[in-house]
């Protein structure tokens, strides 16, 4: 069974977000990436695999070494989703504000506002 990975799954993990941040600044070989974290090389390899599967990282062979390079274009999907969510919630909060203003403006049973 093939599992489709998406960018949201990739950035859900804090270690993967840290890996992306490190290699976004400069490409790094796999050993340098692994050395930057206090987890096993296998765990780092698994994180890199997930990042590669969703397109946030590519592996480039240079001689005997393999370098990780960030491909941050995939994060546009996240930015688009966040923007749509902001619009949705802004609309909901504006509607709530209007509703609260209407409620506060209505006179009560004793004739006061």
TrEMBL record:
<feature type="domain" description="HTH arsR-type">
    <location>
        <begin position="1"/>
        <end position="90"/>
    </location>
</feature>
<dbReference type="InterPro" id="IPR001845">
    <property type="entry name" value="HTH_ArsR_DNA-bd_dom"/>
</dbReference>
<dbReference type="InterPro" id="IPR011991">
    <property type="entry name" value="ArsR-like_HTH"/>
</dbReference>
<dbReference type="Pfam" id="PF12840">
    <property type="entry name" value="HTH_20"/>
</dbReference>
<dbReference type="GO" id="GO:0003700">
    <property type="term" value="F:DNA-binding transcription factor activity"/>
</dbReference>
<dbReference type="InterPro" id="IPR036390">
    <property type="entry name" value="WH_DNA-bd_sf"/>
</dbReference>
<protein>
    <submittedName>
        <fullName>Transcriptional regulator</fullName>
    </submittedName>
</protein>
<dbReference type="InterPro" id="IPR036388">
    <property type="entry name" value="WH-like_DNA-bd_sf"/>
</dbReference>
